[in-house]
Design goal:
Layout lengths: L2 H7 L39 H18 L33 H14 L18 H15 L4 H13 L5 H6 L2 H8 L5 H19 L7 H4 L7 H12 L9 H9 L15 H9 L9 H12 L27 H13 L1
Family: Belongs to the Nth/MutY family.
Pfam family, one: HhH-GPD
Main location: plastid
């Protein structure tokens, strides 16, 4: 049912009968019969017609009384019907994948010999001198800017905000949105993020005295904040580990390694949030912080989105996806031509 239809029929929910109740005005008009005008007239069977009509009305009224309208379909869907609901299927822990410790050690060794883009960024640069409240707000701002944006672009935008004195909730709340937008450009979705930053700053000033929320649930209520950002902020701003930070690299690598699956199946997880919950079922909590940086760098250098470098990967023998995504369209066509010539 469309929202416009819901709006047009919302006033009907107070009626004592279902909307599907038949309307007598919509029924075909009866042919004029002089007998119907006479209350005492009878049909061929000798039963007065006014009595027959009375019985029909009583039967319909009885049916209507026993039915009640389904109010669920007569109201707008509420946001809380869908948002932030926990999935009970994830409540129990599962057995860790085979050889997971050897896989992590192998990835750590490869990370030492391969410099990844994520290794070039110092998240604390310029913010360590800030007051605690301002530093926490700067962490939140940097996390919001990082979504759908390369690390060095996020870092440079954060530095421009710092140089212009806008890495505090109070100063950002007073700044013009256009100023914020020009300073954070060219981060991904910079127009929307400028709006979110203004809204977040206002909330932090009015509700938290210039500080930021200190729980995951409260952080998730802020504009633009999802589970990944919320857990990242909890770790970096409050030094509290309540979940794994899962980005696109962690999501991809975890699925390729067969470390995660949808509940009750062996199918790959469909989102970073499903991956986070699945990982947390078996990965020891002492690994929750390091696993992000480990798999992000690994995903940037070896286990890349397109044509992963499986031949150079030292843990390929443990990977169920090894060598399954390495062929390019060009090499495939060359192979086909060679077979045809033979």
């Amino acid at each position: 049912m469309s929202f416009s239809l819901l709006r047009n029929t919302a006033h009907l929910s107070s009626l004592p009968f279902p909307i599907r109740f038949i309307s007598f005005t919509a029924m075909p008009k009866a042919r004029k019969n002089p007998l119907l005008l006479n209350p005492g007239s009878e049909d061929d069977g000798g039963v007065p017609k006014n009595r027959v009509r009375k019985r029909r009305v009583e039967m319909i009224a009885k049916e209507v009384k026993t039915e009640s309208p389904d109010k669920k379909f007569l109201r707008h869907p509420e946001i809380e019907d869908f948002a932030n609901k926990s999935d009970n299927v994830y409540s129990q822990s599962i057995q860790p994948p085979a050889n997971w410790e050897r896989v992590i050690e192998g990835i750590r060794s490869m990370r030492l010999s391969e410099h990844a883009p994520v290794d070039s960024i110092d998240p604390d640069e310029g913010v360590t001198s800030l007051q605690p409240k301002e530093r926490r707000f700067a962490v939140l701002v940097g996390s919001l800017l990082s979504s759908q944006t390369k690390g060095h672009v996020t870092h440079e935008a954060n530095q421009r905000l710092l140089e212009n004195g806008l890495l505090s909730a109070d100063t950002m709340d007073k700044a013009h949105e256009a100023t914020i937008k020009s300073l954070i450009y060219p981060v991904g979705f910079y127009t929307r993020k400028a709006q979110h930053l203004k809204q977040v700053a206002k909330i932090c000033v009015s509700k938290y005295d210039g500080d930021i929320p200190s729980t995951v649930d409260e952080l998730l209520l802020l504009p633009g904040v999802g589970p990944k950002i919320a857990h990242l902020v909890m770790i970096m701003a409050w030094n509290q580990v309540e979940g794994i930070c899962v980005d696109t690299h962690v999501h991809r690598v975890s699925n390729r390694l067969g470390w995660v699956s949808r509940p009750g199946t062996k199918q790959a997880t469909r989102s970073p949030e499903e991956t986070r919950v699945s990982l947390q079922q078996w990965l020891p909590k002492e690994e929750w912080v390091s696993i992000n940086l480990l798999l992000v760098g690994f995903g940037q250098t070896i286990c890349t989105p397109l044509r992963p470098r499986c031949a150079k990967c030292t843990i390929s023998k443990f990977c169920p996806s090894a060598f399954k995504e390495i062929s390019s369209p060009a090499s495939t066509s060359k192979t086909r031509r060679a077979k045809k010539e033979l």
